[in-house]
Design goal:
75% helix, mainly alpha, 0% strand, 12 helices
Length: 320
Amino acid sequence: IAAMGHDRAALRVPLGNLLNRAVGCVAVLVFLGPLSSLLAGLAPSEVRLAVDFHTGFNLVMALVFILPLPWVARLMEWLLPESPRSADPAAPQYLDETALDTPTVALSNAARETLRMVDVLDEMLRGCRELLHRDDRDKVAEISRMDDVLDSLHGAIQRYLNRLDDDAMTEDEARRASEILSFAINLEHAGDIVDKNLMELIAKRIRANLSLSEEGLAEIDDLMRRLIEHLKLAVAVFMFGDTGAARRLVAGKDRFRDLERATTQSHFGRVRGGRAESIETSGLHLDLVRDLKRVESHIAATAYPLLEESGDLKPSRLVG
């Protein structure tokens, strides 16, 4: 009964257990009289007799069903297939309304939905990297539409978490809710930069039939590759509280900043050297680097709360 209202697949375990008990009860019922007489002489009281019989029944049923368990599992999968998922990529899949009364489960659902946002942003970044090397207006439009998916999922996660009862949550659960919401916000902001800035720059490049210099393209491609790697580190921090991944993410941000400065200096060197393609795409090159750095900042922000909590983050050196 408790599983009703969830996905049909959630009924497999209780129905399989009911089948196990029903088969056992029918089989034992025939021999209930002789078994009662046999066990009555072994148990010191009727209460102990009932307890011992129940324990023995469960053990026997476990032993009997352990071998055919794979066949029973396949039977349950056939009887209760998973409910079809929505074809709309912007529709939440894991925000189960009935779990809101159990904060731990609800937070797990919200985290799973947030990982869908990670997948969308990862696909956007990979598509953006691909568009550095080829002209594809349809791909530009496709990536822009993905930002709508991020916006929708972020809104759904935010509304879901806001419905949690603060008084019913422990301090750790409240902190986890804040972490999930913060991560979702950063993913949504990063997606906005890809859509409204990077895609606009790439579309401008395609319309003007511009090509970055070979060196400039390689430098920006390297920055894109690092962004995608850092997104994976952010997931490790978000899901597992991996302080090692958090340190690498912050160190990667520092390295990213150094590379951003280096590629900017290299670009100016090519411009001063009179490289035609560098002169034509100077604004484009600098804007791409600037926006990639902004995306990196949102990804790296995932590490700071964990490092602050663990004491691994240095205090600000600013003097008032």
